[in-house]
Design brief:
Number of helices of chain B: 14
Largest sheet of chain A: 7 strands, mixed
Helix content of chain B: 40-55%
Strand order of the largest sheet of chain B: 1-2-3-7-6
Oligomer: heterodimer
Order of helices and strands of chain B: HHEHHHHHEHEEEHEHEHHHH
Order of helices and strands of chain A: HEHEHEHHEHEHEEEHEEHEHEHH
Shape of chain A: globular
Distance between the termini of chain A: 39 Å
Number of helices of chain A: 12
Largest sheet of chain B: 5 strands, parallel
Number of strands of chain B: 7
Helix content of chain A: 25-40%
Strand content of chain B: 5-15%
Shape of chain B: globular
Radius of gyration of chain A: 20 Å
Strand order of the largest sheet of chain A: 2-1-3-4-6-5-10
Structural class of chain B: alpha/beta
């Protein structure tokens, strides 16, 4: 996935001279996850800029650059490092188009490596999507596959609106059959996709929890359950249609994500599903989420992250025998 | 036993400061022109232009404050007493340059050529920004403190990358210098050598908190030295000095020599806004002392002594200001026509399905409201 992201940045820089990459360590080092590896050599320091270490400054100057017609792509090194930039994000990035009645859109992309599972110390594993989702004016997308990493990042950079691009950092090293030489599909932002079809229940998920759900669906076959897996890909805008169509088919749904459940994305998703599919539901919409705790230390994180067993337990709790 | 030789590490290369900080340091006293020999060297046309703009600006502040009392403006943070800094900030810029005002700097935006009614949109409450920022190269008035400063840096940097000759002038108050964004903006600008002029209007108070409780720095201009840019201290009530110092700062930035921090020492003669009670935190004597140092009085005295201004010319300046105020009053007294559906129009380039659903809900509510009004009107007619 890391390679696909790097390729997306490369192709965006090559195709559009207004694209600029900026952040701490994105130059010679290629970013702490090497996503910007080699880009400064090819495109120069004016296009790929190592900034001072200051997230509000990075995002705030990117706002000014976007105001002048550039398309900055900002790297926030880790999820929790983005918090100093929240005022810029919420008061300006999300609102500039609206404040100016459409006269001044801000085409900028904010890349945020997020989530746990890589043994990071504290402040390196937060799932911060709920904060972004709660801010009107932002798009929030998160890829789960190598192909989406490329396609969604290209679409985000091409978008005329600000996009928070959440990169599931434990999937950076995920591989699947992707040939970097082949052109990749660039889908519009806002479309969910059914990763696996089934008729017993729908797992609604995104980002780092998608492979976990796929694994759970595989394991569920032994129980005779055919689980459908919906990968949201985009949290804002939310694809109600794809999600509701799936739940209407299966009649049961579990929302799976690793950020905390209370006030988390799952509550919103469960409410939307209930509003649209109430008469099709055979059971309440359940949530399998991270615990409502500050992100745990690395040696305990496996207990916090939703795993296959916890997902299957939830599926079992959907009053299975009733069907 | 043989004594081992003491370990002698190779000493690191001697550390040297990168720049001699002396040229960056502001002078001990704010720079003044009016009432000094230097005033004689200033272009007379410029002095007269400044005078007319100051008179107009003062009238604008008074009219806007009056409009708050009539409920036509939700709020107005007056810059009365600070007109010299406001006007100079606008006049030193070339057409292609950009102004980044704070919420108190409506006057600077107007002096730059913005329609006074459009400039007041935020404060009137009918929308957030009433103009296209690209048209006059005036960024939206910023309500959060100092957050517009990094934008100015980014914009100036972007313009330079494109090879355009653009300087950004960003305005902030004394309170705003305590914000993190002030620091980050100055640091980025200095590192990138971005063509930016930071204008701090030190008007004595951040709402009620005096400068002594805001900073322990010798002056706000001193802060520049730590970033590696020149800091300049200027009498913010001396229009000629403001114009001179800001012009030089803009030239410095335009020449590619990097950013400059200018501190205008001035005073807010009115309260923070019409919602504030300034008598709680400052005495009349202090305000009166500053009234004696009023920017319009200073310039009027200079021009009169030099024989450049007579009663007739003063009257003409006031008449022009009165005309502007009458026009502003008349236009502001018209109720703005608002379309509630606009609430959903500019959130994203393309409306999300969620917003389309909510827009449909509001549409239905509005239709029902209109139908009810029509019914009531029909009943009233019978």
């Amino acid at each position: 996935m890391a390679q696909a992201l790097q390729r997306a940045l490369h192709d965006s820089l090559a195709d559009d001279p207004s694209v600029h990459i900026m952040g701490e360590d994105v130059g010679a080092l290629g970013g702490v996850f090497r996503i910007t590896d080699g880009l400064v050599k090819e495109f120069g320091e004016d296009r790929v800029t190592d900034t001072p270490l200051a997230e509000a400054g990075i995002l705030g100057t990117a706002v000014g650059m976007a105001m002048y017609g550039l398309r900055p792509v900002v790297e926030m090194q880790f999820d929790a490092f983005a918090y100093p930039a929240f005022e810029q994000l919420i008061s300006h990035v999300a609102k500039m188009r609206n404040r100016t009645r459409g006269a001044m859109p801000l085409p900028l992309t904010i890349r945020v490596p997020y989530g746990g599972g890589i043994g990071g110390v504290e402040h390196h594993s937060d799932s911060s999507e709920a904060y972004y989702m709660a801010t009107p004016g932002l798009h929030v997308v998160t890829p789960a596959t190598v192909a989406d990493a490329y396609g969604l990042l290209r679409a985000s950079i091409a978008s005329d609106d600000p996009v928070v691009f959440l990169e599931p950092k434990r999937l950076y090293w995920a591989k699947d059959s992707w040939n970097p030489a082949e052109p990749m599909a660039v889908d519009p932002i806002g479309k969910a996709v059914v990763r696996r079809t089934g008729r017993s229940a729908t797992l609604i998920t995104y980002g780092p929890s998608v492979p976990v759900c796929m694994e759970a669906a595989e394991a569920a076959q032994a129980e005779g359950w055919e689980l459908e897996v919906v990968d949201l890909r985009s949290l804002v805008p939310f694809d109600d249609e794809t999600v509701a169509a799936s739940v209407r088919r299966t009649g049961r749904a579990v929302v799976v994500h690793e950020s905390g459940g209370f006030g988390g994305p799952g509550g919103e998703i469960a409410a939307r599903v209930t509003e649209r599919c109430f008469h099709h539901l055979e059971a309440p919409v359940l949530r399998v989420a991270g615990f409502d705790i500050p992100y745990p230390p690395p040696m305990l994180e496996r207990h916090h992250l939703p795993g296959v067993d916890r997902i299957l337990d939830a599926v079992a709790r959907l009053q299975w025998e009733a069907s | 036993m043989e004594q081992r030789e003491a370990y002698q590490p190779t000493p690191p290369p001697a550390w040297k400061p990168r720049t001699d900080p002396a040229p960056l340091l502001p002078d001990a006293e704010p720079h003044r022109v009016l009432g000094t020999e230097a005033a004689g060297k200033v272009d007379q046309g410029l002095l007269l232009r400044l005078y007319e703009e100051l008179v107009r600006g003062r009238r604008y502040n008074a009219q806007a404050t009056a409009l708050t009392k009539q409920g036509r403006l939700a709020v107005y943070p007056s810059s009365t007493g600070q007109e010299a800094a406001e006007v100079a900030a606008a006049l030193v810029l070339q057409e292609q340059d950009w102004l980044f005002p704070s919420y108190r700097d409506t006057l600077a935006a107007v002096a730059r050529g913005l329609d006074p009614v459009q400039a007041l949109t935020l404060l009137r409450g009918d929308w957030h920004t009433g103009y296209d920022p690209r048209e006059h190269r005036v960024a939206p008035l910023s309500t959060p403190l100092a957050t517009q400063l990094p934008h100015a840096v980014g914009l100036a940097h972007a313009a330079r990358l494109k090879g355009d000759d653009v300087v950004a002038l960003a305005m902030v108050g004394d309170g705003g210098t305590s914000e993190g964004d002030f620091h980050e903006a100055l640091n980025f600008a200095a590192v990138w050598k971005a063509p930016v002029v930071f204008l701090v209007q030190n008007n004595g108070f951040a709402i009620s908190v005096p400068l002594a409780k805001q900073t322990a720095a010798p002056s706000l201009a001193h802060k520049a030295v730590g970033y590696g840019m020149p800091g300049r201290l200027v009498d913010g009530n001396d229009a000629a000095a403001m114009h001179e110092v800001l012009s030089k700062a803009v030239q410095h930035a335009r020449a590619g020599s990097g950013p400059v921090l200018v501190e205008a020492v001035t005073y807010r003669l009115e309260a923070h806004t019409n919602a504030d009670d300034a008598t709680r935190y400052r005495g009349d004597a202090e305000v009166e002392a500053w009234r004696a140092h009023d920017p319009i009085k200073l310039l009027e005295r200079e021009l009169t002594e030099r024989g450049l201004l007579d009663e007739d010319r003063i009257q003409r300046a006031h008449d022009a200001a009165e005309e502007m105020a009458a026009d502003l009053r008349a236009r502001m007294n018209q109720d703005p026509v608002l379309d509630p559906m606009d609430l959903f129009t500019h959130v994203y380039a393309e409306q999300t399905t969620q917003l389309r659903e909510q827009a449909a809900l509001l549409r239905a509510e509005l239709d029902a409201e209109n139908a009810e009004h029509a019914e009531n009107d029909a009943e009233a007619e019978q």
